[in-house]
Amino acid sequence: MTTDPIFTPLAFRSLTVKNRIFRSSISGRFDNEDGSLTQTRINWECRFAKGGAGAIISSYVPVRMDGRIIAGYATIHRDDFIPLWQKLGEAVHRFDCKFILQLSHSGRQMDLPGVHNQHRPAPAPTSAKEPLHGFLCRAMGTGEIEQLIAAFARGAWRAREAGLDGVELHAANGYLFTQFLSSAINDRTDLYGGSLGNRARFLLDVIRAIRASVGRDFHLQVKLSAVEHNDFLLPWAAKGNTLADTIAVARWCEAAGADALHISTGSAFPHPLNPPGPMPLELLAVTYDAMVSAGLHGFRNLLVFRSPLLRPLFRLLWDRKRRGRPIEGVGLDEARAIKAAVGIPVLSTGGYQTASVVRNGIVSGAFDGVAIARPLIANPDLPQHWAAGRDLPPVPCTYCNKCLASAPKNPLGCYEESRFPSREAMLAAITAIYRARPELRVPEPEEVS
Ligand SMILES: Cc1cc2nc3c(=O)[nH]c(=O)nc-3n(C[C@H](O)[C@H](O)[C@H](O)COP(=O)(O)O)c2cc1C
Fold first, then answer.
1. Contacts 24+ apart (CB under 8 A), 199-206
2. Does 175 qualify as catalytic in the annotation?
3. Ligand 1 pocket, 26 CB below 6 A?
4. Domains and CATH numbers, the chain
5. Whole-model pTM?
6. pLDDT at 422 over 70
7. Which of 133, 152, 313, 331 could anchor a disulfide with 350, C-beta 3.0 to 4.6 Å?
8. Mean pLDDT of the chain
9. Is the pLDDT of residue 213 over 80?
């Protein structure tokens, strides 16, 4: 029996996870255009379950097609997808790993509309376009908000029917819930805007609707941005919600029925503090063209990323926000402040890959567990290195953010060539999950449409 706090189980109200290591959400285009998930996604998630994570938090999973951020991500908007998610859950459970589904909606932060959402301003709490890329949106009416609340509740119900272990509401990183919560973005004058209590109404209504749909015994956690830092590019922009605001929201989430909180940061994604590290603009100069037509500022941004003169200026503005902060544990202090204010477990995300940092965070009461994304992309077996007594894996994640900057065009994986013996080895690691499977079958003639 281990005494290492990292490898002691974490007991939530109705779910116990074998250790304190959560694979954080990492979106990648593995799935079908209609939102049905594929064998590739199952292979991808099993990588982390086998590596020793106690639980996997799924990638961004939209509850409706108009909430996608990129086509080719699995969704949970149809009842006939339940058996597919069930297969994924079963695959992960074989490794004694839990699976928590991240229920999401983009609001105005829709990166690539795809054929389903092309030329349709995204439903959002506001009609003001998203400032960085210039994504268009329209303010939802109250009837539409009520329909969306029901869609989240149905998504949670489907996750439970599929035998998954819980759901996470994605109320962080600039997506729909964050837009409602934000004092910088939400410009409504009805019951869903104005005071912090009104801005939190949508999130709290969703928590209550999920509880009404699945009962008290299905795990429900909420991912929140501790601080918005909405002025990250334009110093004169409104700053958005403060830590004190988020502490109040965290307490309300607990009172409404949340079982845990997952603390992130930032009013957008990506954001200089999330994922923390440099933004590889040279790579964006190659991949961002996929997003040029998605927003009004796409072409301008591409020129900035391609221009040897403007690139350093953008880099300066981007990096300014991170100055003086560590990459590993960038959100540790905020997680600690929120944990001190609530009675439910708190997860922290942001740069964790050193065992001693995580251990100290647990022992000192900053958080109960960590949610890890890039260091697990780099080393899916990171938990095994820690269990073997190593503080860091031999070839750690460099936080280069090339996995993220590749996403608009390329498959998800580690693109830091210096971590591999060759470019071919890197590509082999990225594409290993695409192996063809014998169970592919020839459809019956009447199935062909
Ligand atoms: C390629 C990539 C995709 C991501 N996709 C999601 C997502 O779908 N949902 C989410 O909440 N966070 C997403 N994140 C953020 C991570 O879950 C995590 O919170 C963040 O990267 C900080 O952790 P890290 O330093 O361990 O990477 C993504 C991050 C990366 C790098």
1. 200/248, 200/249, 200/252, 202/125, 202/145, 202/149, 202/177, 203/169, 203/171, 203/177, 203/249, 203/253, 204/252, 204/253, 204/256, 205/149, 206/149, 206/152, 206/153, 206/169, 206/177
2. yes
3. yes
4. 5-277+325-398 (3.20.20.70)
5. 0.97
6. yes
7. 331
8. 96
9. yes
